[in-house]
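Every protein is a chain of amino acids, and every chain bends into a shape of its own. Below is the pair of lines this work produces for a single protein:
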Amino acid sequence: MSPARGDHEARRRDVSEAVWRILAEHGFGGLTLRAVAGEMGATTGLLTHYFPNKRALVRTALEVLAERTEQRPRHNAPAQGAAALRALMLDVLPLTPEAAATNRIWVASWDVALADPELAAEHAERYRRSRVRLTAQVAEAQRRGELPADTPPEDLAATAQSFALGLVVQALFAPAEYPPERQIRLVDDWLAGVRATAAPLPRPPR
């Protein structure tokens, strides 16, 4: 008899929690059926009901990682446009221990994804969706005169994303050199430099 749906979903949640603990402690290099089974106190035979192979386990791990990332606390922007763009960039950075742990796992996942065209495509789609959110705020900032309007918003968004991801890597490898306050300052300095080239909005006639 197959398990009831409620039992099945509960077991999947248990598996997801075990996968997350393995990723947080050992990264994708330590993610194996045996390791997850050991974390759950279960048998590898039980896990094959959910993961017929390592690839299925990796895909679930990426889904769990994406869910955890979405559940992280977010920076509240006081307004749309440049302020919201800043908040989105700060949300990417390892400014807290939890965010640093999540980012370490994301960076570790790049090697796994690059070795599998389908997983690579899924990663590319995740970053594309992020650029879409950034582009919307860049366009609004341009409309408000906060950012230069002579650059396509998609290009500015791609630059913002690249800057934030590069800062993530630097902060993970050299956390003492890139404490949270410096990361925030670097984002603010980058935005200030971009803003400096924006033409001011014309004043309404009196």
The chain has a mean pLDDT of 87.
